[in-house]
UniProtKB/TrEMBL annotation:
Chain residues that bind substrate: 72, 136
Biological process per Gene Ontology, one example term: oxaloacetate metabolic process
Taxonomic lineage from the root: Bacteria, Pseudomonadati, Pseudomonadota, Gammaproteobacteria, Cellvibrionales
Entry keyword DNA repair: no
Binding site for Mg(2+): 136, 162
PANTHER family: HPCH_HPAI ALDOLASE_CITRATE LYASE DOMAIN-CONTAINING PROTEIN, LYASE BETA SUBUNIT, PUTATIVE (AFU_ORTHOLOGUE AFUA_4G13030)-RELATED
A Pfam family of this chain: HpcH_HpaI
Domain HpcH/HpaI aldolase/citrate lyase: 10-235
Originating species: Pseudomaricurvus hydrocarbonicus
Cofactor(s) required, per the database record: Mg(2+)
UniProt-recorded name of the protein: CoA ester lyase
Length: 298
């Protein structure tokens, strides 16, 4: 069964799997999830080196600390994915990022691989979680709504660079720097697919890691849209992302007031609050915000 919507992680920081220094720096920081990358951040000639370094690094960490240490494997339709999994699963990472997914069928295949490897390693079956990159292929764009009930999946995210390559685009940005239509569509389809699957939607990276003001504005916007976290490519981005995806004190107070107001007036469909009329969807959003506040404070 898919994991419940209660799973929460705000910042997901990549670290190249062939650099012990960068893995150490990422692990020592404040990211909710650290993703050791065996895919795009590692050159073809260094794949085998990274595949040996990542499990060695994981095994050197306390077992409880590994829950936040995940691994991005190479695509399932390439030559390296099964080797990646065979190397890292026994080291008990908290989860696996599946790139370039074509649809739910890829998660089903990944689940079979993980189950076999967990059994072989004496690990509890189903304990290795999965986040899926759902828009990096043209085919994947048409299957973002197929992940409801998919095994192990706790989050979905999207990518713009590989999608541009997949469709032969020379650019994925408008002249003002915003994403062009196809990539905004990808963002929306990921959000809708995650909502349909009851898993956490996670925003894609911001490549310019020096533009922290731009990152903050973007993170705040996508949280308003419904996103629950964001990928990061540099440690400097982590604190900004964590702050943006943590409800403010003012939001928390307002949500508590709305929940208490409805609780004091059971059976009503709408209720007045600070000059506005609120209905049940407002209550549901307030309850969700309180649950998110609780999860990020643990």
């Amino acid at each position: 069964m898919a994991s419940e919507d209660s799973f929460n992680a705000r910042s997901w920081l990549f670290a190249p799997g062939d650099s012990e220094r960068k893995m150490e720096k990422a692990t020592a920081g404040n990211a909710d999830i650290v993703i050791f990358d065996l895919e795009d951040a590692v050159a073809e000639s260094e794949k085998a080196t990274a595949r040996a370094m990542v499990p060695a690094f994981l095994k050197a960490q306390p077992e409880a600390a590994r829950k936040r240490l995940w691994v991005r494997i190479n695509p399932l339709d390439g030559p390296y994915a099964l080797e990646d999994l065979a190397a890292v699963v026994a080291a008990r990472p908290g989860g696996i990022m599946l790139p370039k997914a074509y649809g739910r069928q890829d998660v089903e295949v990944l689940n079979h691989y993980l189950t076999i490897l967990e059994v072989a390693a004496g690990i509890e079956q189903g304990s290795t979680k999965v986040i899926v990159l759902v828009t990096e292929t043209a085919e994947g764009m048409f299957t973002t709504g197929t992940y409801a009930g998919a095994p192990r999946v706790v989050a979905m995210t999207w990518g713009a660079e590989d999608l541009a390559d997949a469709i032969g685009a020379s650019e994925n940005r408008n002249p003002d720097g915003s994403y062009s239509f196809t990539y905004e569509l990808a963002r929306s389809m990921c959000l809708l697919g995650a909502a349909a699957a009851h898993v956490a939607p996670i925003e894609t990276i911001q490549g310019d890691f020096r533009d922290l003001d731009g990152l903050r504005k973007r993170a705040e916007k996508v949280r308003r849209d419904g996103y629950r976290g964001m990928l990061a490519i540099h440690p400097a981005q982590v604190d900004v992302i964590n702050e943006a995806f943590t409800p403010s004190a003012e939001e928390f107070v307002a949500a508590r007031e709305i929940v208490d107001l409805f609780a004091a007036n059971p059976g009503v469909g709408t209720i007045g609050y600070k000059g506005a009329m609120l209905d049940r969807p407002h209550l549901a959003r307030a309850q969700a915000l309180l649950a998110l506040k609780q999860s990020v404070s643990q």
